[in-house]
Each structure stands twice: as structure tokens, then as C-alpha cells.
UniProtKB/TrEMBL annotation:
CDD domains: S4. This is Small ribosomal subunit protein uS4. GO terms for molecular function: rRNA binding; structural constituent of ribosome. One of its GO terms (biological process) is ribosomal small subunit biogenesis. The lineage of its organism: Bacteria, Pseudomonadati, Bacteroidota, Bacteroidia, Bacteroidales. Residues 3-91 form the Small ribosomal subunit protein uS4 N-terminal domain. Keywords: Ribonucleoprotein, Ribosomal protein, RNA-binding, rRNA-binding. Residues 23-45 are annotated as: Disordered. With S5 and S12 plays an important role in translational accuracy. One of the primary rRNA binding proteins, it binds directly to 16S rRNA where it nucleates assembly of the body of the 30S subunit. Part of the 30S ribosomal subunit. Contacts protein S5. The interaction surface between S4 and S5 is involved in control of translational fidelity. It holds the Pfam family Ribosomal_S4. The gene is rpsD. NCBIfam families: PRK05327.1, rpsD_bact. Residues 92-156 form the RNA-binding S4 domain. GO terms for cellular component: small ribosomal subunit.
Length: 201
């Protein structure tokens, strides 16, 4: 399975946001990485700004370039605003929903849980992180894995009411995907129109 395995704190510092989850390095070094990171930076070009926004979204959701481009093409073919549809397609990924439900502390950890067959969808094991979850489906933890320390620790104290499109059932350690979220419901601050402009050139 292809995934990003490079330095994470460096990427988070580049964008000034905890893209891969909480990162104590950001509080110590709140400037871009590199020899000139703490000095004055050249103004980015329009292309550079668009590219940075695309990279930010790719790293946040843990998607590589080919997957991302294919999702963009699918968004273009769909009805609705392309940038918003792209975000919705990313939000429907199984690894993202496992993260949103609080079963895993980060999307990378969620991807690993899915790949290692700890997650079930409608009672059946699904080990494909990019699996597209449909509204009404139930996502849960495999019965024999419910006592796993990483899962229990992640769920402890997690606020399950913060995402209106997800419903959590604590007794069964499962959540229901109620509906595809609207753009205004998503907490991320992406400027998806810049990505549409980049790919439209």
C-alpha cells in the first residue's frame, strides 16, 4: 500500500498547521523549516500558492498524487461544486471516518487499523483504507479487537458529538455514517478553489 513515509514535523512546519496530528515541534519552531526558515521569505507566486494548497490537502488526508488526481477527476464528473465534491470524496474514505469517529488518534493510525483488519463495515472486515463509505453504513471495531490499547486510549474522552454527520454507539463501539458532510460542516480551512484552478490549467 503506497503511503507517505517522509518527515512529518517538517511538513507540518512548512504549512504552520498540525497536519499529521498534535506536534510539539510547532510550538517550539513556529516558522518554516530550512536554512532560511526563520528569516524573510520570498513572496510565493500564484502557482506556488495553489500547489501548496494541494499539497496541504494531500498530506492531511494521506493521499498520494495519483489517488488525489483520480479523486479530482471523479469530482469533476460529479454534479456540484468540484472543490466541495473533492473534499466530500476524501471525507467518505474509510480511514478518515475511523479517525473522525475517534477510533484512532490520527488518520495514519486509522489507516493502519484498517489495513490490519481491525475495522468492520456493516459487520464485514474491510482492509482497504480508501474504501468509500456510503450513508447508512455502520463502521465499527472488530469484536476481538475491542480491548486493543490504542483503540481504547483513543476513544477515552473523545467528543463524539462534534461531527453532525456521524453517530456513535458506545456499547457496540461502532458509528453510523449518517450523510455526506456539507462544506460548512468541515473544520478544515482548505481553499479548495485554488486546487481546482491548479488542475484546470
Amino acid at each position: 500500500m503506497a503511503r507517505y513515509t517522509g518527515p512529518k514535523s517538517k511538513i507540518a512546519r512548512r504549512f504552520g498547521e498540525p497536519i499529521f496530528g498534535p506536534d510539539k515541534v510547532l510550538s517550539k519552531k513556529n516558522y518554516p523549516p530550512g536554512q532560511h526558515g526563520n528569516g524573510r521569505r520570498r513572496k510565493s507566486s500564484e502557482y506556488g500558492i495553489q500547489l501548496a494548497e494541494k499539497q496541504k490537502m494531500k498530506y492531511t488526508y494521506g493521499v498520494l498524487e495519483r489517488q488525489f488526481r483520480n479523486l479530482f477527476k471523479a469530482a469533476q464528473r460529479s454534479k456540484g461544486v468540484t472543490g466541495e465534491v473533492l473534499l466530500q470524496l476524501l471525507e467518505c474514505r474509510l480511514d478518515n471516518i475511523v479517525f473522525r469517529l475517534g477510533i484512532a488518534p490520527t488518520r495514519a493510525a486509522a489507516r493502519q487499523l484498517v489495513s490490519h483488519r481491525h475495522i468492520v463495515v456493516d459487520g464485514r472486515v474491510v482492509n482497504i483504507p480508501s474504501y468509500s463509505v456510503k450513508p447508512g453504513q455502520i463502521i465499527g471495531v472488530r469484536e476481538r479487537d475491542k480491548s486493543m490499547e490504542v483503540i481504547v486510549d483513543s476513544l477515552t474522552g473523545f467528543n463524539h458529538g462534534k461531527y453532525s454527520w456521524l453517530e456513535w454507539e458506545n456499547s457496540s463501539m461502532s458509528g453510523k455514517f449518517l450523510n455526506v458532510p456539507l462544506r460548512e460542516d468541515l473544520p478544515e480551512t482548505f481553499k479548495e478553489q485554488l486546487i481546482v484552478e491548479l488542475y484546470s490549467k
